[in-house]
Design a protein that fits this description.
Layout lengths: L6 E3 L10 H8 L22 E3 L11 H7 L7 E4 L3 E5 L2 H22 L10 E6 L2 H11 L7 E4 L2 E5 L9 H16 L6 H19 L19 H6 L7 H20 L6 H9 L4 H8 L7 H10 L1
Parallel strand pairs: 4-5, 5-7
Antiparallel strand pairs: 1-6, 2-3, 3-4, 6-7
Helix pairs in contact: 3-5, 3-6, 5-6, 6-8, 9-10
The chain binds zinc ion.
């Protein structure tokens, strides 16, 4: 069974309708990769992407879904690696774009988490499917939701990078990629609100920086009141059934993570996350990590609600 806190479907409810052209435009796909000298700082410099036969890839460890994606015949894919990622692809131009974005997010998340290094000694594998048929076959074999257009699981990411007509938003790819990157720093099961909230917050933040359009503490910018009831949010173990609730769940998760990351001492965010990963409730984790800030969980909730 897939632990829901580790898997994120590219949820249709969160994806604004976008054409593939818009996606490619936003990702810069389909255009010649720019040689980076002189590229604006903050857009992610070109990363060294070294293409190799599968047998020569330095880290060939895959989770089960990755093994299915690779298939019986690894030579049906091109493979290339960067410092932290292995990209499996069909078009190098797409691999180059994704690799650049992945390494940029890696650095951004590391910086934002205020940590020196990740806790994952493997490379993260990213599979860029190109054809609908191969994607549908993979989704069926991996037993993912048949409507998914991309899935993040632990440190791996699988997605359909090109579609004839699409609902694949670049910001959603950013969200999925952030899951993979975050897992490298916290390779454990974490509560669903934290997993989704971090991806929402950091993907908005890192994507904006990647595109050179700001960033900082703005989070995903997804609309909505972000007033999903806190206790219900903390207890959530599966996606709400109602689409509006899904929307509010993501939005509120992001609000809570944004509060933790930007309104409290950011140095203590990772220690807090590690306590939650070890099974602590948010209440006990907050009181243990911020004894100087909150005498009770009520005080914490009041400050969060004002945020
Ligand atoms: Zn997600």
């Amino acid at each position: 069974m897939i632990n829901i806190s580790l898997v994120c479907w590219l949820v249709a409810a969160c994806v604004s309708a976008q054409t593939i052209q818009q996606l490619q435009q936003r990702l810069g796909m389909g255009k010649a990769a720019s040689a980076t000298p002189g590229a604006p700082a903050g857009r992610g410099t070109d990363v060294l992407l070294v293409e190799k036969p599968w047998e020569q890839i330095t880290d060939r460890q895959l989770f089960d879904h990755g093994k299915i994606a690779l298939g019986q015949n690894p030579s049906k894919w091109h493979h290339a690696e960067t410092e932290h990622f292995v990209i499996h692809f069909h078009k190098r131009i797409d691999a180059q774009k994704v690799a650049r974005q992945a390494e940029f997010y890696y650095e951004q998340v590391k910086k934002d988490l205020m940590v020196e290094k990740d806790r994952f000694d493997r490379k993260s594998h990213i599979f860029l499917f190109e054809k609908d048929e191969e994607w549908h076959q993979f989704v069926a074999e991996a037993k993912f939701m048949e409507w998914s257009a991309g899935v993040a699981y632990r440190s791996e990411l699988y997605f359909l990078s090109r579609r004839d007509s699409g609902d694949f938003a670049a910001s959603t790819l950013a969200h999925e990629m952030t899951h993979c990157v975050f897992y490298r720093f916290v390779p454990k099961r974490i509560p669903m609100w934290l997993n989704e909230g971090f991806s929402e917050f950091e993907s908005g933040n890192a994507y904006a920086k990647f595109k050179g359009i700001g960033g900082g503490n703005r989070g995903s910018g997804r609309g909505g009141a972000a007033d999903y009831p806190l206790q219900k949010l903390l207890a959530t173990k599966e996606y709400p059934k109602d689409q509006q609730d899904v929307h509010e769940f993501y939005r509120t998760s992001e609000r809570l993570v944004r509060f933790l990351m930007t309104k409290l001492d950011r140095n203590r965010f990772v220690p807090l996350v590690m306590k939650l990963a070890d099974g602590a409730s948010l209440e006990s984790a907050v009181l243990a990590i911020y004894p100087d800030k909150f005498k009770s969980f009520d005080e914490f909730v009041k400050r969060y609600e004002k945020s």
